[in-house]
Amino acid sequence: MRRLLLILVLFGAGVAHSAEPDDPYASALKAYRADRWDEAIQILETAISAGSEEVGYYALLGWASLRSGAPQPAQEAFEWVTTRRPDDVDALKGLGLAQQRLDDPVAARTTWRRAAALAPDDATLGAWLARLEGRVLEESRPRPATETDSIHVVARAGEAHFEVRRQGAWERLFVRGVNLGTALPGRYPAEFPDDEALYRQWFDEMRVLGANVVRLYTLHPPSLYRALRDHNQQYPNQRLWLVQGVWTELPPAHDYHDPVFDTAFRDEIRRVIDAIHGNLRLPERPGHADGIYDVDVSGDVLAWLLGREWEPYSVDAFDRRYPDRNTFSGRYISTVGSATPIEAWLASTLETAARHESEYYGSQHPVGFTSWPTLDPLIHPTEATVEEELAIRKRAGEPDDAEIKEYDNDLCQVDATRIVSTSRHRAGTYASYHAYPYYPEFMLLDPGYAEARDDEGVARYLGYLQALRRHHGNQPILVAELGVPSSRGIAHLQPEGQHHGGHDEVAQGRVNLRLMKNIHDAGLAGGILFAWVDEWFKRNWIVMNYESPVDRNRLWHNALDAEQNFGLIAARPGRDGPTIVLDGLTTDWQHVPIHQQGGKSDRLAMRITSDEGFLYVLVEIESDRSLAEPGSELWLAIDTYDAQRGSHRLPDPAGLKTTPGFEFLVQIEDRDHARILVDRPYDLFSQRNRRPYRSTDNDRGDFVEISVFTNRDRYGRDGTYYPARGYSRSPLRHGTTRAEDEQYDSLSDWFLSADGTTLELRLPWGLLNVADPSSRRVIHETTRQDDVVDTVETDGFRFQLLWLENSPRGRRRVTAIPARGSTLKGFPTYLWPGWESPTYHLRRKRSFGIVRDGWSGLNGTATDSNVDR
Predict the structure, then answer these.
(1) At 154, which helix (H) or strand (E)?
(2) Spatial separation of the C-alpha atoms in residues 365 and 348, rounded to whole Å
(3) Between the CA of residue 388 and those of 85, 316, 396, what are the distances in Å?
């Protein structure tokens, strides 16, 4: 049992352990799983020194030593195991790793070869040996082209839907998919986890979700495809079909015929196909996966999906540059009708994929290219081009220097109906769109879309999808990205509340499910939810200029950034769970020292802590006061840097003059009335046209709401004016973040205990103009910047706590901590430690269960089922 348990632990799988709670092995195992390797080592060494000779203790000691960076004791522990169990493959693996890290590659190779003789099918071991022996020094394909006249087709583009081959017959598959990006917190997007157990765990959770498709944007490490093969072999009736992408950047000078760019993209298409067919040895390449791809998962592929969201300015420039190169006729793919130059080029890339797979492997899958509503083949009367809108604004008398910082979202079209398969390509082509309900603006404003209805009322998203369906006829349309994020911040407002952000986890699940139903009811081929897991490296237009330095964005979680919060799996700060749970209990605060407290007559105490996402404040009201009493208010003034800057007076009714200047002010009246305000000179919204951004020394006490524009004002093609829209970030939401509570609210900002004497506050770093908490940098500019803000390292945060209540004479009585007139020394600073590697944990969001329970009725194939919960 111990050996099996160890194997699963090493590769990240969760298992049940039957040992008693005081069993040293169980305690060491728990510490190992939590990455507390030194603690695990201490427990194991104590047990061993007490006389234990159980193999499992030594094996786990070896792995814990390796993880802690101590290869010598690891080698000794594994040698102890392998002496007694010469055929223990996992101990031999560990021994080889220890020998390799001790700079003894000859011994490591000997050990791993011994293990490989015992486990010849162990792909991980094979990959280690290959790297050690330097066999992948150049790209190669071990198998020659297949010599056959027959073509194997396991999936095809049917009438309006995908069809898959099952038991000799074609069955319709409605796609219920998830997009998998694998950049875990702290990692760049191309830093793929090479962790087969992690992928197996995720695929199993996708099975529980009821997904039947996983989409990848680019080639991943071989371990992912091994995990996919093993998953589908174990669950053949709950198969995860693969939509495999081939990524590229935009070409130089928007020239898709540039020979270097064009050749590189076609090489990558062939390379990805080779890898999926298990026929590629790929050396290391910066920014790409590599390794030995010897597992053939082509039988699990639903479709190839090439490219990216092509930018309209790039497509327009290319079409203008090559107006006469607007047709393509290939052996497998051709253009029809009045195709455009970009459509002809896209058709040629689909030809590359279809030809290579057909002629090298005797296999075919549906081929498509990535697109989005910005390039859809429809005309939108409410969406003027930049040139058209500037002309309208000029006629309306606006200044000539008006600037529109937005794409042309209806400048040009790319029409997948003009790219078709020839008779030789039986798998067919399909259309694909990344289609979200909130953008572009024409999806909200075009009046025809608002006429659509679903079970919940007006359904503009459904109306748009129906328009696409009418245009494409029987061609399958795959919505390859859709969804809404569970971020506190909102980047774009939508009339039905399907905003780009601002959803708690329950609302996220409900909106995502409604969108999937709209796709189903519109007769489309299915949808792939974005995304599986939150990704911290992502950046959204409304906050990206305030996340600086840019290359450190991956190190912290911004609750205001919608792009970081799309996942059904949350990636949240805290190694083993939340740093602080908003629930009115103080058990998770016991390790946090008191930061400030009042005297005997005003017994208020405050504790401060933080993590990679939030600043946390605990206020304990220890006297006979209570925020539950009418007329009571609690204010918290926050100085984020440089005590000389900021407002040195707090507004009425406090009217308090202060030694440090404050940038922010939290005002809490009751559970329905709480907000955070910013000193006007440091308000990024009101100062957006008067940069540089910086706090200034003042005594005005002019604290204002934190507001943003999400939808800019615009003109339609017919001259109709659509005013700007926005919202305030200032309201603070009361609720609990205790996951077990029925009232759990993932967007809670604060919680007040039932008796009104314990208050917990959670403020996102971005709400406090912190540009990078990992390096303690806040927004401060000395000169005007055009884009990304300049920053300064804070000297620490200072706080002043105020209690406001009615006096017997009906006036407001104010108690301040520190007291009125306190010198700067009376305001202790809170300066958190920076970090280079974030702590985080993964968990299912509430949206996971809502999608799981709701979309199973959106039928895939007859044998698809959703079983385990």
Answers:
(1) none
(2) 16
(3) 77, 15, 13
**Cβ-based neighbours of 401, under 8 Å, separated by 6 or more:** none
DSSP string over 211-261: --EEEESS---HHHHHHHHHHHHH-GGG--EEEEEE---PPGGG-TT-HHH
Q: Residue 345: helix, strand or coil by DSSP?
A: helix
Q: Decide if 800 contacts 664 (C-beta within 8 A).
A: no
Write the single-letter amino acid at 645. R
Question: Strands 569-573 and 526-529, how do they pair?
Answer: unpaired
The DSSP symbol for 429 reads B
Q: What is the DSSP letter of 416?
A: G
Six-digit token pair at 443?
Answer: 């999806």
- Residue 338's region, left for phi above 0, alpha for psi from -120 to 50, else beta, is beta
- Does residue 134 have a pLDDT over 70? no
Report the DSSP pairing between strands 241-246 and 213-216. parallel
d(CA 353, CA 271): 10
pTM higher than the cut 0.90? no
Residue type, 419: I
Residue 670 bridge partners (DSSP):
673
Amino acid at 383: E
pLDDT one-digit tens code per residue, 186-242: 999 999 998 999 999 999 999 999 999 999 999 999 999 999 999 999 999 999 999
**Can you tell me which residue has the tokens 């209990």?**
585
Return the pLDDT at 179: 99
CB–CB of 292/279 below 8 Å?
no
> What's the half-sphere exposure (Cβ side, CA atoms, 13 Å) at 89?
15
C-alpha 621/C-alpha 604 separation (Å) is: 5
Tokens for 284, please give them: 């290391």
